[in-house]
């Protein structure tokens, strides 16, 4: 990693933590002002998520889908094409993966093979669905935000239709699918924490996307297209191809997120309303400043806030909607370009000055060595 990239990554991480700190400060003051028992509520809000092994495991489990959808939106954010279909992809991929798992349940496939097939199905669903708004945007100049939002509604109702007419279990009182086969479930790990093993899939995805973003030609093209379209055109980069491919790859990760969520945390498919994890991923990508390496950090922080809100809602007198205010403050601070922007520029400038000084010193040493060599040669002659 270059020195400039290292500085940018470090400052962005500090920006996230400072934004969270400011939002928490406002939250604590507000809780103290409006709650009948502010000390208890504040303690539950801050420490409640760590008060039991189960809650710590819940934070990690909640961060897993946030990580997948956050990676999805890092791609669309990178090329400045806000394809918001990640929300619908997450729900629809869970539906199709559940249908596939139930259909293959009697095939006797070993668990590793079954899981690989289902992850591939989820990825394919994400790929194909994200192609729709991406293609309409390039081909017909359709507003990609409007198209993807409408597509989310279509996918939500399509998922319910598939559930009702292709895999509904009539033996239960609520609307739900037949049981997902045991061979298709992601096992729990870390003992009493009961974290679904999609955790490892998410870590592999983060590492893969980090390499893709910063170590490959496609990652470079994608970042150039998003940050400087005119330069990208002048450089001969295929703009439309790069933009479409970025959205397709992002859709793959949203589809894998829906797959891991349904196979890791549910016995049957019962999603009849949107999970909102897609839009949570957009929030994570904004917090991470489209840097995939920071996505897990942002996902854990958001999950921690959500679990804290649940604890306060169940044990205090504060409505869970209060957390929306906290999230809004965090996003406003992190999205503000100049929030700690001067500090980052100052660090980069100092690093550049230091490098220039070192280069001049090296050049001076080389010149002195050459002069000494020349003088020695003349004295010998």
UniProtKB/TrEMBL annotation:
The chain crosses the membrane at residues 12-35, 55-77, 89-109, 115-136, 143-163, 195-214, 293-312, 318-336. InterPro entries: ABC_transp_permease (IPR001851). It holds the Pfam family BPD_transp_2. It is a multi-pass membrane protein. Signal peptide: none annotated. Keywords: Cell membrane, Membrane, Sugar transport, Transmembrane, Transmembrane helix, Transport. Its main location: membrane. It is found in: Cell membrane. CDD domains: TM_PBP1_transp_TpRbsC_like. The keyword Acyltransferase does not apply. The keyword Protein biosynthesis does not apply. PANTHER family: ABC TRANSPORTER, PERMEASE PROTEIN, GUANOSINE ABC TRANSPORTER PERMEASE PROTEIN NUPP. This is Simple sugar transport system permease protein. It comes from Lacrimispora sphenoides JCM 1415.
């Amino acid at each position: 990693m270059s020195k400039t990239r290292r500085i940018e990554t470090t400052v962005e991480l500090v920006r996230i933590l400072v934004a969270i700190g400011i939002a928490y400060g406002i939250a604590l003051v507000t809780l103290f002002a409006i709650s009948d028992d502010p000390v208890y509520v504040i303690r539950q809000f801050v420490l409640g998520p760590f008060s039991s092994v189960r809650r710590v495991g819940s934070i990690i489990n909640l961060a897993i889908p946030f990580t997948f959808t956050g990676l999805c939106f890092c791609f669309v954010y990178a090329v400045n094409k806000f394809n918001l279909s990640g929300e619908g992809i997450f729900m629809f991929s869970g539906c199709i993966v559940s249908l596939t798992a139930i259909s293959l349940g009697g095939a006797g496939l070993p668990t590793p093979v079954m899981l690989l097939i289902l992850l591939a199905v989820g990825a394919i669903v994400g790929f194909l669905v994200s192609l729709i708004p991406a293609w309409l945007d390039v081909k017909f100049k359709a507003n990609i935000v409007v198209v993807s939002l409408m597509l989310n509604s279509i996918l939500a109702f399509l998922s319910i239709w598939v559930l009702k007419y292709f895999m509904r279990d009539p033996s239960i009182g609520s609307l739900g699918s037949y049981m997902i086969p045991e061979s298709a479930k992601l096992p729990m790990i870390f003992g009493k924490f009961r974290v679904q093993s999609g955790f490892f899939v998410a870590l592999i995805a983060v590492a893969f996307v980090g390499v893709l973003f910063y170590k490959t030609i496609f990652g470079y093209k994608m970042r150039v297209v998003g940050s400087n379209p005119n330069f990208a055109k002048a450089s001969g980069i295929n703009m439309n191809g790069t933009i479409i491919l970025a959205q397709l790859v992002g859709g793959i990760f949203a589809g894998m997120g829906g797959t891991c969520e349904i196979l890791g945390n549910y016995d049957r498919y019962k999603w009849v309303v949107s999970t909102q994890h897609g839009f949570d991923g957009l929030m994570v990508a904004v917090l991470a400043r489209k840097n995939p390496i920071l996505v897990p950090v942002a996902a854990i922080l958001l999950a921690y806030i959500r679990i804290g809100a649940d604890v306060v809602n169940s044990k205090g007198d504060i409505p869970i909607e209060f957390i929306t205010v906290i999230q809004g403050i965090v996003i406003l601070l992190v999205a503000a370009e100049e929030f700690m922007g001067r500090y980052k520029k100052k660090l980069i400038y100092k690093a550049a000055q230091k490098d220039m000084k070192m280069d001049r010193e090296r050049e001076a040493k080389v010149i002195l060595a050459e002069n000494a060599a020349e003088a020695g040669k003349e004295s010998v002659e």
